[in-house]
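Mods, move this if it's the wrong board.
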Amino acid sequence: MKSLDVIVAALLVIGGLNWGLVGFFGFDLVASIFGPMSFLSRIVYALVGISALYQAAQWKAIQRRWQVATA
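Not the wrong board. Structure tokens:
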């Protein structure tokens, strides 16, 4: 499960950086790599969305797995 946690975290960083680029510069990196709303772009966007849902639903379990102290 820790491997999945790392993959999810990486996808969320990619998604966050992409949204930052969109917000600050109007530049969509995913669309520039894979094409605007291409099949691959949609897969990347979907994976980022699924990662966010996983992170939101599993944050307590992730903390326990990684033994992160809660504040």
